[in-house]
Amino acid sequence: MTTRRIEVNAVSGPLPQTEAEPVQALKGIGVSGGVAIGQAVVIERLTLEMYPQRIIAPDEIPSEIARFESAVHEAAKQLAQVKKLIHAGHPLEEHAYILDTHMLLLEDKMFFNGTKSAIASERQNAEWALSEIIGRITSAFDTIEDEYLRERARDIRFVGERVLGILMGRSETGKIHQLPPNSVIVSHDLSPADTAQIQWGNVLAFAIDMGGQTSHTAIMARSLKVAAVTGLENISSKVQTGDTIIVDGSTGVVVINPDPDTIFRFRQRQEVYRNYHQSLMAFGQLPAVTIDGACSVSILANVELMDEIEIARQHGAEGIGLFRTEYLYLGRRELPSEEEQFESYRRALEANAPNPVTIRTLDVGADKMLTNLSIGHQTNPAMGLRAIRLCLEQRDIFKTQLRAILRASVYGRCLLLIPMISSLTELQATREILAEVKDDLTRSGIEFDPKMPLGILVEVPSAVAIADLLAREADFFSIGTNDLIQYSLAIDRVNEHVNYLYDTLHPALLRLIHQVVEVGTAAGIRVSMCGEMAGDPVNIPILLGLGLTELSMNALSIPMVKKLIRSMSMEECRELTARAFDMTAAHEIRGMLEDWLRDRFPQDYFVPQS
After folding, report:
1. How many other C-beta atoms lie within 10 A of the C-beta of residue 587?
2. Is residue 23 a contact partner of residue 259, using CB atoms and an 8 Å limit?
3. Number of domains in the chain
4. pLDDT value for 477
5. Which of 295, 391, 414, 530 is catalytic?
6. Does some domain include residue 162?
7. How many angstroms separate the CA atoms of 597 and 392, rounded?
């Protein structure tokens, strides 16, 4: 990411401009809204690339292994001490479990035994061996499409960097413990242990080189309601402690050492954003009904972690349209027990009752799970043994999860969602296994909801092509646009060479969505959307025009999406959709929609002005 010249406009329209040149700014990923103006505090982190490298003598191997083991022990001790800081009432109390995950990673076989083996067999010093092993483990995450899972590789790096620092005798910087008022934290990255030790009352914002919407920094910033921009790549090398810095978490813009005119503009933007955000939040609690009353839309939230459920409720979610379960399986030595899963699902259902919670079954491949599953390397894991394919292969794992979900189903309104269904055979096999589990529970006298709906995630082209057949066995469809786009357009969205082709408004995708909605409507089953496409205001007129009446999205998008829906008519949506279907390219459709939104709602922020 490079430095760009950016014209700075306010949320509600252009601010007064001067004759000065546009300010120099960095553009990253806005992950937590708001505008902050403060003084930079640069937190320097030791990275896995900063290590000594030497071949050790054979007689040094035992002492080098002992040195590594001692460092791991000390890292575990440090993490336990940090966890004690997260007392009851601490702003990050609900995130304490992350530190437990990091402590478990220290005991991971690949991490612990792998490093010792590299020291012994390769005669590498401990720092070198550790860095090599972490590189091997994290490289498996590089091709993962799911952003949440990809971010978990950073947990492994955080753990490795802590041990590396101990091996090199580097103590943690004291800056994070002694922050002055009005601090903006600038760093290459921040670990959960770092954030747990921050003096939150003195922090206005984060500006971070690494990370995305699902990074720990992003999740914690949203919980604390401070502005944050991640994915800046090199801001930690461009800023010095004491520099004045502006962070606009709504647009992802960060300005370093701004001139007085730029500060003035952002002060105005800060006030506008504050007022706009306050007014916007009120829309979250209102029903999403078009201005002509012709269409009522259910707005739900996609949730990764339990602590996000309250955020979803605050932003107006009418339930959980996608409850991902992968976090229960990652970063641990063994698979989660039925009881552990049951407790997690029960809590989610109780927290949302009487609103619905759609629980997606395990959606990972064996290559993405830090467990002892003995499944070999897959050359192309995105199209390999993953999601429902893995569950049908590993039926004991699948049955354990289904038992836990069924047991929890009596505590609220539970729906079951199966990912990556590509054939009717897979859906029928799933129903057979579900029936077996229900029979087992009945014989054991354990209660469950016998009418719990079973739906499928429509995310591969074959599922669209045979949607009429799948509708005979499925109780509902949920369109997962993230994978549907990349599979239907043959685009790897994590490949920097082709990800520019990834577009939610591609004419082919719109026609696929239209086909699924038509089939679902004809079969009398509900059709929803839970992909990222559902949370972008630019897409909303088209989605309503296509006939979708249930959308699930990132909780932060809900108030804005509700406001937009309540401000337009179905006649407008149908007209825009008809115009889009006459166009031949995604950029034409996007341009048309953005122009319409700016003209129709000049005082709103449905289209970023950056």
Report:
1. 11
2. yes
3. 4
4. 98
5. 530
6. yes
7. 45
Where the chain has pLDDT below 50, the residues are: 1-22, 366-372, 610
Per the domain annotation, does 440 fall within a domain?
yes
Q: Residues 461, 600: one domain? A: yes
**Which residue has tokens 């007209």?**
575
DSSP, residue by residue, 85-128: HS-TT-TTGGGTHHHHHHHHHHT-HHHHHHHHHHHHHH-B-HHH
Of the candidates 515, 511, 514, 509, which has an alpha carbon nearest to the alpha carbon of residue 532? Answer: 509
Distance set, CA 420 to CA 328, 364, 389, 546 (Å): 19, 10, 8, 23
Q: How confident is the model at residue 10, as a pLDDT?
A: 34
Q: Let me know if 177 is a catalytic residue.
A: no
From 216, 277, 315, 506, active-site residue: 216
Residues 139 and 184 in one domain: no
Structure tokens at 231: 């994915």
Domain around 129: 58-167
443 and 325 assigned to the same domain: yes
Report the alpha-carbon distance of residue 572 to residue 20 in Å, rounded.
40
The DSSP line for 478-512 is: EE-HHHHHHHHHT--TT-TTTGGG--TT-HHHHHH
**Catalytic (active site) residue 530:** yes
pLDDT of residue 48: 62
- Establish if 286 belongs to a structural domain: no
Element (H, E) at 216: helix 216-224
**Same domain, yes or no: 158 and 232:** no
In whole angstroms, what is the distance from residue 421 CA to residue 255 CA?
A: 46
> Which of 452, 487, 514 is the last residue in one of the domains?
452
Which tokens sit at 224?
């604390």
Same domain (yes/no): 162, 187:
no
Same domain assignment for residues 462 and 582: yes
- 180 closest CA partner among 35, 40, 37: 40
Asked if 34 and 126 sit in the same domain, the reply is no
Distance CA 39, CA 448 (A): 55
Please indicate, yes or no, if residue 15 is contained in any of the structural domains: no
SS3 content of the chain, % helix, strand, coil (to 5): 50, 15, 35
Res 18: pLDDT: 34
